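Re: that chain you flagged

S.,

Sorry for the slow reply, it's been a week of failed gels. I finally had a moment to sit down with the sequence you sent. For the record, here it is as I used it:
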Amino acid sequence: MGILNTRKNKRYSYQPRYYKGEGSPYELKHKFDEFRVTVSSNKGLKTKLNNAIEDYKHNNDKSGANRRVLIIISVLILVFLFIIDFDLSIFSFKR
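Prediction finished late last night. Pasting the structure tokens below so you have them in one place:
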């Protein structure tokens, strides 16, 4: 064992006796990985951001969740402004 080298884990080629499925039964994978673009192993912030924007553009949102999120955020911002006594009259026209 060296001072600078770290110890590597041992790999075994164990296969369960009664497993008749595809691939390894021990592989941890999310349920929706094959449907998402943003889960891939891309490195770099720019690539991840571009993939997220492309996924957002081509997402067919039938339930209106994006609109609902925007409404919730706007209500929370208005409540916050009300709590800190922000003068909302600057947004109205003066006569």
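What I noticed first: Residues 65-95 form one domain.

Talk soon,
D.
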